[in-house]
Design brief:
Layout (H helix, E strand, L loop, with lengths): L7 H10 E11 L19 E12 L6 E4 L4 E7 L2 E3 L1 H4 L4 E4 L5 E11 L6 E6 L6 E6 L21 E6 L5 E4 L3 E4 L2 E4 L12 E4 L2 E10 L5 E10 L9 H19 L8 E6 L6 E2 L4 E5 L10 H17 L7 E2 L5 H19 L5 H16 L15 H6 L4 H17 L1 H15 L3 E2 L1 H12 L4 H8 L6 E8 L5 E9 L10 E10 L5 E11 L3 E3 L11 E4 L8 E2 L3 H10 L6 H16 L5 H11 L6 H18 L5 H18 L5 H13 L3 H12 L11 H13 L5 H10 L3 H13 L3 H13 L5 H11 L5 H4 L2 H15 L2 H10 L8 H13 L5 H27 L2
Parallel strand pairs: 1-10, 16-17, 17-19, 20-21, 22-28
Antiparallel strand pairs: 1-2, 2-7, 3-6, 4-5, 4-7, 8-9, 9-14, 10-13, 11-14, 12-13, 15-16, 18-19, 22-23, 23-26, 24-25, 24-27
Helix pairs in contact: 3-4, 3-5, 4-5, 5-8, 6-8, 6-13, 8-9, 9-10, 13-15, 14-15, 15-17, 16-17, 17-19, 18-19, 19-21, 20-21, 21-23, 22-23, 23-26, 25-26, 27-28
Length: about 850
């Protein structure tokens, strides 16, 4: 049997054979605290817990053979239909062989399952602050088999009954309501759900409650108990009131628009440590990374981001949990829908009215990058197995899919789209679907044939570029305006786009504002915008104004000249964000020199009102300098960015979120001795910037560049950890320690991540982040060859999450030379039989490196 991976063909064969009536799962988690029971495992073996599972299921073919899934160190006992099986004969560490099935079957599995330190399965975390132990589960796409035996695929849904024995004084949560009886937590049976969205949290969590109530038009009232939890150490920072506010606003919004009551009883939200994802939509027990609890001052963009994630996961309760895709090919069905609904409900139900600006500027940037990689794929991807599924939680599945759904809403109409969703939920409740099931109801409600639209947008890859072509008369009027559409040679599809074309010019007071707009369908290589013929000459033509479609915006020469001089005077924040995004794409495509983009940021970012856009500009400017700027200009670029950031920091309103944002950016780009001295003074209190409060999180942000430049040594970092002796503080310290400019430090960090599995997932992530410092490229040079020697072994030996972190995070991107590109090509040529998911990660990193080299060549050419 083929190990941990599961192919689509195997899943389809098993789904055709089996149907599951229900699970009863009993876990004993008392081993989570105290010394490991040496009777359970040999010395050096993982800490384990007992898991007893009873599965009742039917076989369409009596006498057939199939398998159940379980990843566990050992199985104590197995029985099928009352007959004891020898675990040594039928269990290989990942699968349980099931032979001679009856029409009705009962499988009982008594296993020792391992606690996780990688965020997969049953994760065990020991809080360094107080020694308390916290457990939680994370399963998507296929890690519930690390906790109990099951049929691990999304289309074999079933009801679940859970019971848990836990250490005294602990509370345990699961998908259903729990009750402690005679020392055992008993949970209400779930509705039929997929294995990957079952969940547990257990430990001495700080838990806050509230409730939600809604009366429907038929007079019925829905009461939903609400809960929110975090580690005790984070309780002083936990703004649960705001979490509950957004939760209630979201429930109101989705009840109004979906016309289907929330189907899973209670609604708990757990903010958990060392979480690999942003969040996970487990019905009744949504899990989030605890970084959404803010230990220091943050901007409104952070609160908006958290609200968006809360609403994204809530949308999944209907789209993903109530109705689930058959297989991971249609992963996009739930993620794209939830990504779109997150922004849609954010704007429609909460205080964050500028959610579509964030979507256009941040989420689409993720999609544009993913859609230009060699691994790009149609939104409806070909997912051959679980490793493919793991890698397809990407910018295409989420952000491009959501962008396309936004266009679909414009195409069929919002009312028709929402009515289609309502019918979809009611017809397929607790079942599994494919893409065609959604398109069929949308065709019903809109009257449109969606086959052509689906083929162009869902079944092809790549991103189109739209460029305006303007011809003016001698009198300064538009005689012809057209939109030119282009596609990459590798993905030549020209798609139908619903776009708005906006004309902008200066007003008497110097602002740049729109004075004309036309909305039209763009098809083929050239589409005439007849409605705007005769309009006065524009200074800026913005195709895809209002961000109706998914495309890369290009500019005619006159528009680009206007942006170079007057970008900061565009009054509409969405239009301005779209222009910034387009300029960044020009930089990534080596059509604008990196130094020019950095110059625009230095000139105009100080006028940016939207804090989320400003934070994105800082990230892009940093990337432009690190990857796309000519190596010989980097020192000058560092100096200019640091000077500009400090200037804006001093000009920002004292105590404002803009001041905080510029302070963080200044820390990121500081390199000169005066800059580092200022950071040190702000830490020690010998320097001051009016209104800037240097709280604990900002202290760590200032310490990292000091460590990276050799100013903060190990004793200094140890002293800071003593000041902040928490899990968060430990992660910060580990990152700063790995950032220090020493060959010995880099060797130690490399060994800790690549040669050992002692670090938890969070500390692996922190070590990689500190190791990879642009300011010390020469120290990282020896690790380029070591990387290619190690990655296949890492992929084979480590969990997929850790392996992905290592392969992506340690790729020698800072050794940006043709030599590194050639070494990457040599590895790919010599490892054609390597795991496809591993090759994909290396191919993506290779593409980023080649793009960086093209950008550097463009920047060199600009210097003359």
């Amino acid at each position: 049997m083929p190990g941990e991976n599961l192919s689509r063909d195997e899943a389809q064969e098993r789904a055709a054979l089996l149907s599951v009536d229900g699970y009863e799962v009993s876990l004993d988690l008392r081993s989570a605290v105290g010394d490991q029971d040496t009777g359970q495992a040999a010395e050096g073996a993982p800490r384990t817990f007992r898991s007893v599972t009873t599965i009742r299921f039917r076989s369409a073919e009596p006498g057939a053979t199939s398998f159940a899934d379980l990843i566990a160190p050992s199985v104590t006992a197995l029985s099928l239909n009352g007959k004891d099986l020898d675990p040594g004969e039928v269990f290989d560490g990942t699968r349980i062989l099931l032979e001679d099935l009856a029409a009705d079957n009962e499988l009982v599995v008594d296993a020792q399952c391992a606690y996780s330190r990688t965020g997969e399965g049953m994760h065990r975390f020991v809080d360094p602050e107080d020694g308390e132990v916290y457990l939680y589960t994370q399963y998507e796409p296929a890690d519930s088999r690390r906790v109990f035996a099951n049929f691990e695929q999304p289309d074999l849904k079933a009801p679940f009954r859970f019971e848990v024995r836990a250490p005294e004084g602990w509370t345990v949560w699961s998908n259903g309501v729990g009750e402690l009886t005679d020392g055992v937590w008993q949970f209400a049976e779930t509705k039929p759900i997929s294995t990957y969205i079952t969940a547990f949290a257990a430990g001495p969590y700080h838990y806050v409650t509230d409730s939600y109530s809604r009366t429907f038009e038929d007079g019925t009232t829905l009461e939903i108990p609400l809960g929110a939890m975090c580690r005790k150490g984070l309780a002083p920072y936990f703004d649960s009131d705001d979490v509950f506010l957004v939760t209630k606003q979201g429930l109101d919004f989705f009840h109004e628009h979906f016309d289907y009551p929330y189907p899973f009883g209670k609604y708990d939200q757990a903010f958990v440590p060392e979480y690999n994802l942003g969040a996970m939509e487990n019905p009744g027990l949504v899990t989030f990374r605890e970084e959404f609890i803010f230990r220091g001052k943050v901007t409104q963009a952070s609160y908006e981001g958290r609200a968006n994630v809360i609403l994204h996961e809530m949308a999944h309760m209907w789209f993903g949990d109530l109705v689930t895709m058959e297989w991971w090919d249609d992963l996009w069905l739930k993620e794209s829908f939830a990504d779109f609904m997150g922004a849609f409900s954010l704007v429609g139900a909460t205080r964050f009215r500028d959610g579509w600006i964030t979507f256009a500027n941040r989420r689409k940037a993720w999609a544009y990058r993913a859609d230009q990689l060699p691994s790009t794929h149609p939104i409806t991807a070909d997912i051959r197995d679980l490793q493919d599924a793991k890698l397809n939680f990407d910018g295409i599945t989420y952000a491009k899919g959501a962008s396309v759904l936004k266009q679909l809403v414009a195409y069929v109409g919002q009312d028709a789209f929402l009515e289609g969703a309502r019918r979809y939920f009611k017809r397929n409740a607790y079942g599994n679907t494919r893409l065609g099931d959604l398109l069929s109801v949308l065709e019903e409600t809109s009257g449109r044939d969606l086959a052509t639209w689906a083929r162009a947008w869902l079944q092809t890859a790549g991103v189109n570029s739209l460029t305006p072509q303007v011809i003016l008369s001698a009198e300064g009027r538009i005689t012809e305006l057209a939109v030119l559409q282009e596609a990459a040679e590798s993905h030549p599809e020209l798609r139908p786009h619903r776009v708005a074309v906006g004309l902008y010019r200066r007003t008497p007071d110097g602002a740049v504002e729109r004075y004309a707009r036309a909305e039209l369908d763009v098809e083929g290589p050239r589409t005439v915008v007849a409605e705007l013929v005769g309009a006065e000459a524009p200074e800026l033509v913005l195709v895809n104004d209002d961000d109706l479609t998914y495309c890369k915006i290009r500019f005619d020469e006159g528009s680009l000249a206007t942006l170079r001089e007057r970008l900061g005077e565009i009054t509409d924040p969405l239009a301005r964000a779209l222009c910034w995004s387009a300029l960044w794409n020009l930089t990534r495509d080596a059509l604008m020199p990196a130094r020019d983009f950095i110059g625009l940021v230095l000139r105009f970012a100080g006028r940016e009102s939207d804090i989320g856009v400003l934070q994105m500009l800082h990230a892009w400017a940093d990337s432009a300098l690190t990857f796309y700027a000519a190596p010989g200009w980097r020192a000058e670029g560092e100096r200019l960015l640091a000077e500009g950031a400090l200037k804006e920091l001093r000009l920002a309103e004292p105590g404002s979120q803009h001041q905080l944002t510029w302070a963080r950016f200044f820390a990121r780009v500081a390199s000169g001795s005066a800059d580092l001295q200022l950071l040190g003074g702000l830490l020690e209190g010998t320097a001051k910037i009016d209104g800037l409060v240097v709280d604990q999180e900002l202290r760590w942000a200032f310490l990292e560049p000091l460590a990276a430049h050799g100013v903060a040594d190990e004793p200094r970092l140890a002293a800071e950890l003593a000041r902040d002796d928490t899990a968060s503080g430990k992660r910060h310290q580990v990152r700063c320690l790995a950032a220090r400019p020493s060959a010995a430090v880099k060797a130690q960090a490399w060994a800790a991540v690549v040669e050992s599995d002692a670090l938890s997932n969070a500390l692996v992530e922190a070590t990689i982040a500190g190791f990879d410092q642009p300011s010390r490229r020469e120290l990282l040079a020896p690790y380029a060859a070591k990387y290619f020697e190690a990655i296949e072994r890492v992929w084979a030996d480590r969990s997929i999450q850790i392996a992905m972190d290592v392969v992506k995070g340690l790729f020698p991107s800072l050794q940006d030379s043709q030599e590194t590109l050639d070494a990457t090509d040599a590895w790919l040529a010599a490892h054609e039989s390597a795991a496809p998911a591993l090759r994909r990660l290396v191919l993506e990193a290779r593409d980023d490196l080649a793009r960086a080299l093209r950008g550097q060549a463009c920047d060199v050419a600009a210097a003359g």
